[in-house]
Amino acid sequence: MEELDTKTLRKYDSDYLWHPFTQMSEWEGAENLVITRGEGSYIIDSEGNRYLDGVAAIWTNVHGHCRREINEAIKEQVDRLEHSTLLGLTNDRAALLAKRLVDIAPPALCKVFYSDNGSTAVEIGVKMAFQYQNQTGHPEKTKFISFTNAYHGDTVGSMSVGGIDIYHEVYAPLLFPTIKAPSPYCYRCTLTEDRDCTRCGMLCLKELERLMEQHAHELAGLVIEPAVQGAGGMIVHPEGFLKRVRELCDRFDVLMIADEVAVGFGRTGAMFACGKAAITPDIMALSKGISAGYLPLAATLTTRKVYDAFIGSYAELKTFFHGHTFTGNPIACAAALASLDLFESDKLLEALVPKIAYLKERLQKLAGLPHVGDVRQEGMIGGIELVVDKETRQPYHWEERVGVRVCLEARKHGLFLRPLGNIIVIFPPLAISLNELALLMDGIEASIRAVTE
Ligand code: PMP
User: Fold this and answer.
1) Which range has the worst mean pLDDT, 131-140, 257-266, 386-395?
2) Ligand 1 center to residue 168 CA distance, Å?
3) pTM summary value
């Protein structure tokens, strides 16, 4: 393939590309990094500069970039079969992966419906729950309850169950109405001694219980990001929260849809956040880490109970009317299978234990900085909230873009980071070494100090 110089690549990008979640007037003409290679925990630009990938290719990368075993599995698959379809056919890779996903999923999740991104994985869950209620004698159960500050993707259905005003407000007239429970975290609590949020989490549960009781007769499902509200600012659930949500769903006969798109595949230190909390949702959405961050792939898993509601004669029209062209793509499934093999051969989950402990230590140290208002962690996810005033926890005005400035400063330290507003996100490839994690944390600390002190 033709190798182009950086100037030409930037020009083509500026002239022809429209970037996601990007104000293009700022992007065009800027000296944006052009990434041309990846190696382990690093991404490498067209000038040969190496950046430690602090956000794991937007929360997807597991075993490092260009991991030999996954590369080989993909190459081998390309030479056998690049794609067919799951409409009227199956393929060997999709079938084998479905079995392996069921083997590692929380108990009772036994059916796999493929798609190709996180938004569709959630939207499929929403449609499944809706149709399940309809086909089990509850056509009146049509509504969904979800959380303030939640993020489940950018399609119209997944936005409808989301709750981040800055992303969703403009589309409000397009979205279907949902019932919103408070976010499982309360900013007020950090002004008190109760820094683990237990008290506020419980208040939130009380309100959730009240809403579910009030709306039980019309609720088809509840949608939740287990363990952490990701894009909402790495908001970590209080201890025991997910278990209580499961109990409420059982009590009010509401299907629990767990969106493990960001936290699945080892991110919390366990394979799945629901497994870690010892619960089984009725429906579980997976993407991002499923293919180790290599290829677009997603899966929505469900139970026999839900699946059986779609079984009937052809004429009953109980079929699940949903399907994407690239559903069960064998190359993506081959990457996912190679990734699951690496989880085992690298003993990846065990290897996370010291890294999670080290991240905790470094975050606690950062909590002492004068402009750090809060630090949050769940497994290999970290969030550092920057504030004007530590005591009152007054946030920086969003137009100051302190998060963006810290991330740009971090490039001088050889890091690539992407913030969520004033929150610095730590989300490296799970295979990052302890030495690399130390470099990442050193660079983050120096960058926060340079921008805020
Ligand atoms: N759910 C969660 C929890 C996510 O974090 C994301 C993406 N960040 C999505 C859904 C949407 O995934 P995608 O961007 O692949 O559509």
Assistant:
1) 386-395
2) 14
3) 0.96
